[in-house]
Amino acid sequence: MTQRAKIETDGSEPGRPTIDAGAELDPVHPAQAPVRHRSAGLTATEVAERVARGEVNDVPVRSSRSTADIVRGNVFTRFNAIIGVLWVIMLVVAPIQDSLFGFVIIANTGIGIIQELRAKKTLDSLAVIGETKPTVRRDGAATEVHMSEIVLGDCIELGPGDKVVVDGEVAEADSLEIDESLLTGEADPVVKKRGDQVMSGSFVVAGGGAFTATRVGREAYAAQLAEEASRFTLVRSELRSGISTILKYVTWMMVPTAIGLVISQLFVKDAAFKDSVARTVGGIVPMIPEGLVLLTSVAFAIGVIRLGRRQCLVQELPAIEGLARVDVVCLDKTGTLTEGGMDVTELRPLNGSDETYVRTVLGALGESDPRPNASLQAIIDAYPDNEDWRCVRALPFSSARKYSGATFSEGDGRTSTWLLGAPDVLLPDDDPVLGEIDGLNQQGLRVLLLANVTGELDDPDVTATAHATALVVLEQRLRPDAADTLAYFAEQNVAAKVISGDNAVSVGAVAEKLGLPGAEHTVDARRLPAERNEMSKALDKGAVFGRVTPQQKRGMVGALQSGGHTVAMTGDGVNDVLALKDADIGVSMGSGSEATKAVAQIVLLNNSFSTLPAVVAEGRRVIGNITRVATLFLTKTVYSVLLAILVVCTGIEYPFLPRHLTLLSTLTIGAPAFFLALAPNKERAKPHFVRRVMRYAIPGGIVAASATFATYLLARAHYSGPDALSAETSAATLTLFLVSMWVLAIVARPYTWWRIALVAVMGGAFLLVLVVPWLQDFFALRLVGTTMPWLAVGIAAVGAVLVEVAWRLVDRRFPA
């Protein structure tokens, strides 16, 4: 801490205490004197020795899965194993046409790996940009290093908002307060003195200092936790858990059905062995919704890449989905609605104070804090320090206290103690000065009070002796994109709640300038009910809340969640950490504190609040489109299982070879699903993914299976001779294709030119197979005569009508 200037004063302030400037301060005070012995840190030689011994912080902090994990996750799946075995069998017993499904799976797996590797590259590059670098002292100089370059014994500096990256012992403490709630659950900050232990994963809420690293790498207390929390993950997603649930049920249905089909085709019928094997495999393969997981991964991966281009780091992949489900977004004013910087617009001395003297006090206060916040930085810019005063004790700003302070030796043996902070916290409710401040707050200006006190800085009741000396008026810079972003949320029926530690009237004025609905009715959070249900009701009614403490922010998020809301929280300051952690989705600004970025799922590296609508839109695209394509895949699973059951029950040949269902799956599901999964989609995300998908897939699958089996039975009665089975299969394939095309046509709604073109191209491709001779031979599809083919079309038309009616009835009677 620097030496301060001495200002001559008449000592007229009442009750000014006198302190011997050279006296030693009580070491147990949380408001400690500046540290007088500064560690020089390690030398370059000592660092090199520790690196050689492996005493480095070698925990890999990744924003994405490793390449090996990506390949393993895409290749070694349950369904790939099943299909792989069936593929090998078909390569041995059947023509290559019946093994096409295996090549499709290889292509799908390759696409999944490539897309996820692209997403990994994007995430890793963004993580490097967004990584905060701790400041360490080496050879007597402070330097920023990557976390992986910290070695045992390093002296690491700390300031407000900094995260403790390794375990250590406090070497210097200047009013150092550490929040360990993310590790211990204890909400109150812990005052740290020299010699105290600090744990990785905690963060600084006030003051500063330095600590010596005593445990690094995997030995650090929170190393494993931090690595796991920072890793690209596919968990905690309703979409993915829903798909896992569906696949579990599919497996249960598939196994007994497949066993029955194997027995039916291999042991009951007298058909050739190889043909029976081929038709058995043809019945099992389409039961597996193999492309569904792939498309979900691809959709998420492409979402990551798209957001990466907007400088948005998605630290947890399901956050894209989560933000799309949000119906309440809580915004911190400073740094979110307003830019970080401020400007001093006016200084109003009070109670006859001398303006020159006040300017000097403000300059001294600015110099007393080595890590000033935005408000104090504006004061530093406006009022330079006078070097004759000496700071003998400092109290850094705390979001919980809402003021900072310092005790100065003025050079003539006199001392003065000052507080700078929120006027309505420092003054009693009936103080006339507050009336003067209301007018300024209503203009959206931020007002700080400079007050002289007679008590000790560490006394919790020190504000009782506050004597108003001056008002410092600050103007906040509104973000140019904030109004449009708030308007977007209003259009999307997402309620925006501004939650700030500033004066409620001032916050309300800023929100009103930005057009936030309900901004004219501001609420002072100190008057909110403590009981959660009552608080939830109050939060539903209000839109702007001021004088919110960090603990209250956390409580407000919990109250909103208890009311059934999905809550996103944005912020950039250390006072937002607890609320960000508890919110369903935490969004941090790239310029935010280390602790804030560590707990957030999404980091806006460009510090642009206007990026949020793009994240919401990307999430809605993923959820809406995956719901669409899941309906296609699961309709196929349902009709495949039912067809197999009908074949087993009737004891006849399975109607299809693998090549037929590969063709149908490609044209009615695989190719169109890929385009539909990546298409724009602005539908608001809805819950109950499994129920919404299955209520369409089950009736659609039942109708498709019934229509196909009816055509097959009629064809068996109609055709005879050695080539009858081929003709029967062709007629059944035509019916199944047409019903499946109608399912695709429904899923593709609402129609746009490209969706109509997509359905038309798929239909045209099937028609091409039916009319081109070599394609007829390749896929063993040849329509014989005119009666049965037209009957197949007629049955398909009835099936299409039944699908349409069934889905409309489902919408009315079983709304999701």
UniProtKB/TrEMBL annotation:
Q: Which UniProt keywords apply?
A: Membrane, Translocase, Transmembrane, Transmembrane helix
Q: How does it sit in the membrane?
A: Multi-pass membrane protein
Tell where it localizes: Cell membrane
Fetch the Pfam families from UniProt.
E1-E2_ATPase (PF00122), Hydrolase (PF00702)
This protein's superkingdom? Bacteria
Chief site of localization:
membrane
Keyword Protease, does the record have it?
A: no
Transmembrane ranges, per UniProt, are 75-94, 100-117, 246-267, 287-307, 638-657, 663-681, 693-715, 727-747, 754-775, 787-810
* Protein name as catalogued: HAD-IC family P-type ATPase
